[in-house]
Structures are given as C-alpha cells and as structure tokens.
Amino acid sequence: MDKKYYVYILETEDNKLYCGYTDDVEKRFQSHINGTGAKYTRAHKPVKIVFKQEFETKSDAMKEEYRIKHLSRSEKLKLLNL
C-alpha cells in the first residue's frame, strides 16, 4: 500500500485557520490538541478539521500547503466553501 499525504486546515477556538501537511491527519490533529503539533496551535487551540486533501507525494502536499498558506483569509474561506 502506497503512503498518502494530506494537506489539512484546522479551525481554532479564536476562529483562525491553520494549514499543515501530514501522512496521518487524525494523529496530527491530536498532536495539535495536545500542544505538541506546532507553536501556532499551542497559542490558538484547534477545535476541528475543516479541510483535508489527499496527495500521492509528500512534495505535492508540501507545495499545496505553501500555496494555501499564502492565500488571504477570504481566499481560504472560498476554498472551504464557507
């Protein structure tokens, strides 16, 4: 079985959006909740996963994460269909 990679977006308690990539979204989400995921999510507690997209390669996932992180909030919300 080939490994899959994902780009995900989390919504935080203070209504911010956090984007990242991983090979296991649920495990990564738990690490963010536990305070071991990223510096940003230690200060902005995540409440739910609002977006997840699958990729065949880590490189493709990282490129999409980079692209999303450079979008404005309104562009991110459009991506989420909110």
Structure summarized in a few sentences:
With 82 residues, this protein is of the alpha+beta class.
Structural description of this entry:
The protein has 82 residues and is of the alpha+beta class. It has a single domain, classed as GIY-YIG endonuclease. Helices cover 40% and strands 29% of the residues. The chain has a three-stranded antiparallel beta sheet with strand order 2-1-3. A hairpin with a 4-residue loop joins strand 1 and strand 2. The chain is globular.
Main sheet makeup = 3 strands, antiparallel
CATH architectural category: 3-Layer(aba) Sandwich
The fourth-level CATH homologous superfamily is GIY-YIG endonuclease
Helix content: 40-55%
Query: What structural class do helix, strand and pairing data support?
Result: alpha+beta
Which whole number gives the mean pLDDT? 95
End-to-end Cα distance, whole Å, is: 34 Å
> Helical stretch count?
4
Enumerate the spans where pLDDT stays under 50 for 5 or more consecutive residues.
none
Classify the fold: give the CATH topology: GIY-YIG endonuclease
Total strands: the figure is 3
In angstroms, what is the radius of gyration? 12 Å
Percentage of β-strand residues = 25-35%
Categorize the overall geometry: globular
How many domain units? 1
Strand order of the largest sheet: 2-1-3
H/E topology pattern: EEHHEHH
CATH class: Alpha Beta
Topology:
Layout: E1 5-12, E2 17-22, H1 25-33, H2 39-43, E3 46-55, H3 58-69, H4 73-79
Features:
globular; GIY-YIG endonuclease; 82 residues; alpha+beta; 40% helix; three-stranded antiparallel β-sheet; 4 helices
